[in-house]
Amino acid sequence: MKFSKLLLPAFLILAFCFAACSSDEGNGIVPEKQEEDPVNEVTLKEKAGFGIGAAVKTTDLNGQYSATVIEHFSQITGEFEMKMATIWSGDGEYNWEKADALVGFAAENGMEVHGHALVWYKSFPNWFKKAKYDSATFETMVKTYIETVVERYSGRVKSWDVANEIFNDDGTLRSEDCPVYETFNDPIAFYGRCFQYARNADPDVKLFYNDYSVVVAKSKRHHIKEMVTRFNKDGYPIDGLGDQFHYSVNTNLNTIKSGLNDMAATGLLIHLSELDLKVNVNRSDNYIFSPAEQKLQADAYQNIVEAFEALPQGQKFAITTWGVSDKATWLTDWWHPKEYPLLFNKDFEKKPAYDGFLKGLK
Ligand code: GLA
Predict the structure, then answer these.
(1) What is the per-residue pLDDT across 184-223, written as a single tens digit (0 to 9) for each?
(2) β-pairing, 51-56 with 316-321?
(3) Which residues have CB under 8 Å from 358's CB, separation 6+?
(4) Ligand 1 binding pocket includes 329 (Cβ within 6 Å)
(5) How far is Cα 267 from Cα 245, in angstroms, rounded to an integer?
(6) Ligand 1 atom at minimal distance to the Cα of residue 212
(7) Rg (Cα) of the chain, in Å, rounded?
(8) Is the CB of 274 under 6 A from ligand 1?
(9) Which sign, positive or negative, has the C-alpha torsion 150, 269, 256, 72?
(10) What residues form DSSP beta bridges with 75?
(11) Cys-Cys with 294: which of 70, 174, 225, 352 at CB 3.0–4.6 Å?
(12) Of the residues 118, 274, 331, 333, which should be mutated to test ligand 1's pocket, given the most ligand atoms within 8 Å of the CB?
């Protein structure tokens, strides 16, 4: 009797304690919020005050791939569809199938199109290169090509890379395997006329010069700016500059910022035109894309987007990623099979990189 008299109050105290301690309210621990982080509720295209682009392949535009493109991006660029070698099948002959499909997809889904690229040394068709035209014939043919293509998509393509990759990193003109360099004494003047041909074909389209390593290669950038000065002086139109932005998580942020500001000093529109960020920087066969590596990439995306956001408002044209998901990226061939440079994983799920990009947007 004596024992149970003592035991009952002790049991009641213990039971009370247990009940109180198991409730979050009772012990001062704030329960974790269950609702989603608001930053994740909007998509890139909804949040951005400029174009959010993806380079796409029309053959892939179905299922999850196209659903992802439609949900998150506001503009598309053909990875191959609008290159000279795809469209220009012969003298006076054009293959519009893929470019039309690209432009059609954009129109159906309320997206814009950035055209890439009218003149690129790597994309002159073989039949054209083999012919070894003299400079006058060469120019007449390229002029007709530019006018035909730009006119066809006038009002449906908002911007074109008129010329792509004409400088080496040291600022000299690219000479190797470059039909323009081989044909013209003054290639820059030829490119200036190409911008003019594009302008004549569509007075409203935005015209870009596009290259890689613009923000990191000072000499190249300097010569690009000199070209812009010359275009302005000689009356050739140019609206914008694109840096492809094929960089890595290790690319120096201060270099990126000062390079971007230097590009913007031209007063032109700025396009990060082919953004992807390598993570397997040592091309290691044993590379693992660990959570820590994913975080590094997310931070790098955020920093780049913040640097772009810091540019004058009216000069922020667009940021385009070169591809959509890590399932298909040129870097797994060209760099290393273990490479994960984009915003979506192989299953089209958002990566931390996506959240980094989103956080970087104002
Ligand atoms: C360059 C070109 C792109 C594409 C990539 C590699 O950056 O501008 O069109 O060919 O190379 O895929």
Answers:
(1) 999 999 999 999 999 999 999 999 999 999 999 999 999 9
(2) parallel
(3) 39, 40, 42, 44, 47
(4) no
(5) 20
(6) 7
(7) 27
(8) yes
(9) negative
(10) 53, 112
(11) 352
(12) 274
Q: Scan for tokens 């690229």, then name that residue.
A: 117
Residue 236 DSSP symbol: -
Whose tokens are 């432009």? That residue is 103
Exposed, middle or buried, 180 (CB in 10 Å: 0-12/13-18/19+)? buried
- For residue 159, what is the enclosing H or E element? strand 159-164
| 164 in contact with ligand 1, CB cutoff 6 A | yes
State how beta strands 93-94 and 88-90 pair.
antiparallel
CA 80 vs CA 4, 59, 122, 316: distances in Å: 86, 11, 12, 25
* pTM beyond 0.70: yes
**To which H or E segment does residue 210 belong?**
strand 206-211
Kindly list the catalytic residues.
165, 274
Q: How do residues 337-362 score in pLDDT, each as one tens digit?
A: 999 999 999 999 999 999 999 999 99
Neighbouring residues of 293: CB distance < 8 A, sequence distance ≥ 6: 249, 279
